[in-house]
Amino acid sequence: MLLKHRIPCYGYLFKEKIKERGIIKEMIEEFDLKIPEIIQFKRGNDVTREDGTVLNHLEFTTHPPKPRSYAFCTDTKYIENLKEIVANVDILYHEATFKHDMLDRAKATFHTTAQQAATLAKNANVKQLILGHFSQRYGETTEIEEEAKSTFENTKCVEDGDVFLVR
Asked: What pTM, to 2 d.p., does this model score?
């Protein structure tokens, strides 16, 4: 997605595909399941055997893992409708160049405040917000993180070398 900055900048949304259902291995031997039957179960389909017996796929499979998602948005001014695009992601990385007391500066330079990023995360129902792309005027990010956490608790300011797992 094209973001709103002085030069063209893009945000990215990564979503895993929904995986097939998992087969319960013990059922394979117990019911002498054939490969085509297993494939049908994994696709979420019931199986009708030659004798007319219907085997319910829910009894032979487990739910697939929930697909993971990650959104990356930096170098952008606040975009209200971005919440629809990043809705329900596991992790949202968003810039927080300034604290909210510098909102006018953020607008003038096409950047976002920590409070705005937190508001976006809250309104989009994301699970975790990671903030980055801070102005050099801030020697440390404690105040930025505190400001964001006042709106969206599950917030972390990124530091060089940090690793975040999408679970």
From this structure: 0.82
